Amino acid sequence: RELSEMDAEDERDLAEMEELKKTERSCLEILKKYDFTEWELMEWSEQQAVFNFLYDSVTLTVVFGPPADGEFFAARPSRSIISLDFESFLDEEQAPPSSCLVQRLLFQFIESRGSWQEKCPTLHYLPQALFDISLVVNRCKILGEELEFLERWGAKFHLLETDVKNTEVKLVFSSSVAFAKFELSLTLSHEYPSAALPFSVQTHIGNIREKEIAAVLSAVPVGHHYLQRIVFSIHQNLLQGPR
Length: 243
Fold this sequence. Notes:
The chain is α+β, with helices and mostly antiparallel strands.
């Protein structure tokens, strides 16, 4: 008798596990309907879901609560969400400055949204939250690639130095042809590249000052590869000959 009871319990456990797997599969199908993803699902259990972003350097843990009344997700009663916790695993001392900047901007976005649990009280809201985070991650990743490009190829555009501190990028230009050397400091935010960047200029040699640079920057439209296009435009318009 005890054996049959144990068998029945095992069967119930197996049936529950199969149901969980089905739920996970249907949840993933819904999540993947969004245009693109910058997350990787590491765990989906009865208790929580764990997502990784940015080459496993940021983790989002979503802790589930009881079913939400009258709401469905993946054809099952939707679960309430107790908490969404973001954690960074980036070693800032070892990571390149561009990676540190990308992380700072992502966490700037995360903090700017206030309470994620209030915005995402049930599973029903999770795909939109993942989509919003993915958008910012995608833009920040492209910015990181732009910085790496400028560090590698900047000399071609009279860019002597690219320095990252907190959320500020300092670009030092030097051109013997234009008899000019100056620093351009740009303040970045998680809205990059959809908003113009606040900037300041420090002139070391020559006549290129804030007024001349402001005129060039105002002609560069925001959008894809904004930082690179700023550098190209300064090189093209200010550093080709004497001013």
